[in-house]
Amino acid sequence: MSIALLTLLALIVVSMMMGRYDLSLSEVSKYFIGQANSSSKLILELRFIRIIAVVLVGAGLSMAGATFQSVFSNGLASPNLLGVSTGSSVGAAIAILNGKSIYWIEISAFVTGILTVFLTLLINKILRSNSSITLILSGIIMSGLMQSVLGSVKYIADPENQLQSIVYWELGSFMKVDLQALISVGPILIVGIIFLLLTRWRLNTLSLDAYTIKTIGINPTLNRNLMILFATLLTAASVCLCGVVGWIGLVIPHVSRALVGEDNRYALPMTAISGAILLLIADTIARSISVNDIPLSIITGFIGVPIFIVILIRRRNVGI
Amino acid sequence: MLEFRITTKNLSFAYKTKQIINNVDLNVAAGQVLVILGPNGIGKSTLLNCLSGVLNKYQGDILVNEQSLKQLSIKDLSHQVALVSQGVNIKSSLTLFDYLLLGRSSFHSIFDQPDNHDEAIVKQIIKQIGLENYTNISLQSMSGGQRQLAIIGRALVQEPQILIMDEPTSALDYRNQTVVLKLIKMLSEQGISIVMSTHDPNQAQIVGDLVGLLIDNQTYKQGPVNKILTDKYLSKLYGIPIISTYNESLDRKIFGIGMD
């Protein structure tokens, strides 16, 4: 765990040095002690804000994925399980269609993301079921509906620039993150991350069946809903900051469990750190290798898929 | 007069319009083992789920240490009553130690981590169920018998006075059945009251102090083992001839089924 944390810190420094203008280690260290010259200071400030956002989103999305996987006892659960990412994309797309500024896009994405989850929970309530399968199915229904809405918006969008912006949003990027965006969304991410870290032992209990949880003396519905609430907040906040970033929330929890075991007391902090590391690597590549930022989901997909295959092979070998 | 740990008064439970159990009056004192017998689908699990607080839309009353179960919080109830569910198929891939530790959840707030005291209790219970060599083994890689012991262990970690066990031996071979039955005897000697269901009258003979028969959806009959565990009652209970013979070397009755 401490090795992972040191790796993350080292990566932050390396990532500060890398970019379209490479800077030396001494320039980066001068920035942290407040002695950088004005030109490198400007670059490093932008990079630092972006890196903080990347670390928070990487940790947040992975923890949201791990939480959903535990609460629903389903290794295929991802942060989009209840439709939050698809819902957010709809909000962002509508804002883009109406030519709104980046802040309106973010607010609109956040609101529709939360609204979608609310509708998912409502469908589940109408079905009067306590089973997690019904909730997952309700999520699929809402995701499907939101996909159709998103398709309609894309269909009527101006293909010259609006459609491009929408597609760009759907693939995720930190290019437009500035201090104001970080200040408005960062606190939600920090609160969500801290809450889930503090309640990580309870997450183990919630992976049992509802009857057992109840006889252990824990209210299954209340506790599950709390976890789902904070995981949803983390996802919605992430999506409204940088669009939809795929794979991280699904793959990283599996990586962490393979590294430190199933106990969330260790697996969840490991998930947070590994998620931050993977997204930081992906974003550094995204902003360094070409003139334009490469959409993140392209890179996380190329990194995530092979990792996932390796984990599945390992699992098959130990017979799970 | 005996002080009862768990008592029911006119306990009835209906699922939608179907009456499952009706007017059950049972009582178990400290250290007693009550074995519930009855044919498949008669409502044994329903009765046990009511007693453990899982199902709460019942009529009548359940008293736990003379307090109405409905007035106890989920947390307070879990410190008095623990359930060993019919769950050899538990899916958890936690290690035995981490799984047992979950039984301590309600002793802490949602933001807490387990402390040394919890870990000491878990270690002691693992010793009691005889799985010291499996402390750090994942439940997934254990046998059915070991997993059943793990479930019992998790319930014991709650330090309950009453243990409700739903067919704790049903999926086990003879050897593992004996391991579990011995554990049940030991727990009752420690003063824990046990209500368990089984399909085997011989087990009632071995560990039971009391036997409760769920004869049909209307009738519950409870009494001491030697009075209730008779060929006549059991034949009526299962609707087939049941014949017992006395076995000298075992020093108890053996129940067998007649095929006619």
Could you describe the 3D structure shown?
The complex is a heterodimer of chains A (about 325) and B (about 260). By secondary structure, chain A is mostly helical. Chain A has a single domain, classed as ABC transporter involved in vitamin B12 uptake, BtuC (Orthogonal Bundle). Chain A has helices at about 1-15, 25-30, 40-70, 85-95, 100-125, 130-155, 160-170, 180-200, 200-205, 210-215, 220-240, 250-260, 265-290, 295-320. In chain A, helix 4 packs antiparallel against helix 7 (about 160-170) and helix 4 (about 85-95) packs parallel to helix 11 (about 220-240). Chain B is of the alpha/beta class. Chain B folds into two domains: about 5-80 and about 160-255, 3-Layer(aba) Sandwich (Rossmann fold), CATH 3.40.50; about 90-160, no CATH class. In chain B, the strands form three sheets. Chain B has a six-stranded mixed sheet with strand order 7-8-9-4-10-11, sandwiched between helices. The longest helix of chain B is centred in the C-terminal third of the chain and has 16 residues, at about 175-190. The relative contact order of chain B is 0.17. Chains A and B meet through helix 9 and helix 10 of A and helix 2 and strand 7 of B.
